[in-house]
Amino acid sequence: xxxxxxxxxxxxxxxxxxxxxxxxxxxxxxxxxxxxxxxxxxxxxxxxxxxxxxxxxxxxxxxxxxxxxxxxxxxxxxxxxxxxxxxxxxxxxxxxxxxxxxxxxxxxxxxxxxxxxxxxxxxxxxxxxxxxxxxxxxxxxxxxxxxxxxxxxxxxxxxxxxxxxxxxxxxxxxxxxxxxxxxxxxxxxxxxxxxxxxxxxxxxxxxxxxxxxxxxxxxxxxxxxxxxxxxxxxxxxxxxxxxxxxxxxxxxxxxxxxxxxxxxxxxxxxxxxxxxxxxxxxxxxxxxxxxxxxxxxxxxxxxx
Length: 304
Description:
Low-confidence stretches: none
CATH topology: Glycerol-3-phosphate (1)-acyltransferase
CATH architecture: 3-Layer(aba) Sandwich
Distance between the termini: 33 Å
Radius of gyration: 20 Å
Order of helices and strands: HHEEHEEHEHHEHHEHEH
Shape: globular
Helix content: 40-55%
Number of domains: 1
Strand content: 5-15%
Structural class: alpha/beta
């Protein structure tokens, strides 16, 4: 444990360890990535992807070791049991910090299949990670503003089509697809700009979830609903604060939900009623999540 180090030093050490692990994993992956670039046979590429996922799992295990070495997080977790690593899940979660991804990977490793999450298209340029995410078949999404879509209506639905394309690939083997429904990390200024009716959450985007359920709902076993909060931090912690060890406590509430039968395999693009039903269903989940976060913060003497 490196908790004796001053916070800035610990941050540098943690960043160095995560960086070395990422570079080492990428170097190990590179021959398989190169083969995947030059080989177009679907069966061979599928086998290469399985090998890359095994290496990705090794990367997660080493990250967990680094987390244990550099952090002193008090864990408050409920619901982390009864999962099947050979089942397929849709994981939905609120989004507070870049640390969320490392924490969720740490908690769910070996419990469910390798987590794949939706990424902004710009992240493909992140050194090492971008090409690794591509090789691991993480879906990259190009997000357009409402004003841009109004001026370029031909691009409407691009994200939906990308989601559907990846979901078809995901049917081939057990998979965990994670979707941060808010689309971005929470902060108070974003909440106010959106005029979100939720006190501790941004507005959820139901479109991606609708297409996942439409494209592969019949292949999914359950939905995992995650509520993640850092109750000792007055604001959503930055990734640097995480590296420095300034997240004293992480509270995670996990529950498994059955997929509503009427959503699985439904044609969400054409059925307006299904679209509206999924939107109401997601908003109901978010209402419960907002109340749960408020109760957790109240237990820690915080009204906000």
